[in-house]
Amino acid sequence: MVPTRILGPWRPGAAMQTFSFIPLPVEVSATFISLPQHYLEVCKSFKRHCNPFIYQTFLLLEKDYRKTNESYKNEITIKIAGNNRLIPVQRITDEDFETLIDTLRPHKNVTGLDVRYNLLTDDGAKHVAKLLEEVQSITYLNLMFNDIKTDGGEVIAKALHRNQTLKHLRLTGNKIENKGGMFFATMLQINSSLEKLDLGDCDLGMQSLIALATVLTTNHSIKGINLNRPILRSEEEESTIHMSHTLQINSTLIELHMCKHDIKNFGMQQLCKALYSNTALRYLDVSCNKITRDAMKYLGELLKRNNVLEVIDLSSNRIEDEGSMYVTEALAFYNTSLKALSIVSNNITGKGLTAFSDAMKTNTTLTNIYIWGNKFDSETCVLVKK
To answer: Is the dihedral of CA 154, 159, 161, 165 positive or negative?
Structure first.
């Protein structure tokens, strides 16, 4: 996740930030000019008060676009995140969202909408479905941490049966639960355009996890999926075993997040075995699990033979110094693909951290390693400083 850059208030003597006012594409400029007024007109037609947060976002849209779009493409993403602390926020309700999508309908160059951390409920999900069915230009939709539950999840999933333009959907933090997850598994049997799906922290159950893993054996469009923090009532690691089977077959999945899945050493062994034959996966997130030093034998052997994985997140496990040795041997002498590795909070002492430092002297591809939360001694601190 890329951190947000927040600019502080201007101070006397400080260099003022300047923006290049290169002429925008005619269609983009026309959209920026018309959106605020169009929004006021839609609110009037619905006989509703305008939401000042939405209106202010439209007024600042050109400034945001110039900061984030170097090539000035004819594609606009509107960010109305309810956790924005830079401008006054009146979080979006279901009614606000209805007026919002009516405003966006004629503007075909609006391709992204970010309304995370707002107040959308299952009623608002009906308007989301309307957006997916009627505004066919939307390729990115972020609904993270609203209040959409199972019924709303069903409505959105069924709308995606007919939608062929959305590429990335984020539902993280909406409690659609196991039944809602099943609706999305069914959707993935039909939809062939969605490429990224975030269902982390949605209270998925074992049934929906297995269904999603099974569907991914035949779905050839999904490139990234987030299944973090499901509700598991078993210690048998069934979800990990099924996902391992998926990885043996699937040839399109590039990014997999399985944080807080209660993965233990056996589950990690199964994932590593599956990745011997997988030539697609680039990003594996198994953070916040129950993986210990013994499982690092399997990961070490995998890294000696797999030259596809580029990012591995092992944060908040317990690999310790002994587990570190298996990994560092592979990194020092064999692996030529891994670019980023997180071993944050793994009970590693100076011995293990020094081994990682030594491995990076011979490894030419690993450029980012995250080590905080471990046990630093004076020798390690000197190495880190260097």
So the answer is: negative
CA angle 153, 156, 158 (to 5 degrees): 105
Give the C-alpha separation, 57 to 91, whole Å.
12
Q: Is 201 left (phi over 0), alpha (psi -120 to 50) or beta?
A: left
Q: Which two tokens stand for residue 347?
A: 């009970």
Q: Which residues contact 105 (CB under 8 A, 6 or more apart)?
A: 134, 135
Per-residue pLDDT of the chain (386 residues; tens, 9 = 90+): 333 333 333 333 433 344 456 788 899 999 999 999 999 999 999 999 999 999 999 999 998 888 887 677 889 999 999 998 877 889 999 999 999 999 999 999 999 999 999 999 999 999 999 999 999 899 999 999 999 999 999 999 999 999 999 999 999 999 999 999 999 999 999 999 999 999 999 999 999 999 999 999 999 999 999 999 999 988 889 999 999 999 999 999 999 999 999 999 999 999 999 999 999 999 999 999 999 999 999 999 999 999 999 999 999 999 999 999 999 999 999 999 999 999 999 999 999 999 999 999 999 999 999 999 999 887 677 665 55
Beta bridge partners of 168: 140, 196
DSSP state of 141: E
Specify the residue for token string 């109305």: 80
Residue 144, SS3 per DSSP:
coil
What letter represents residue 72's amino acid?
Answer: Y
CA–CA separation, 265 and 297 (whole Å): 10
Structure letter (DSSP) for residue 13: T
Q: Which two tokens stand for residue 313?
A: 């997140």
321 — phi, psi (to 5°)? -65, -40
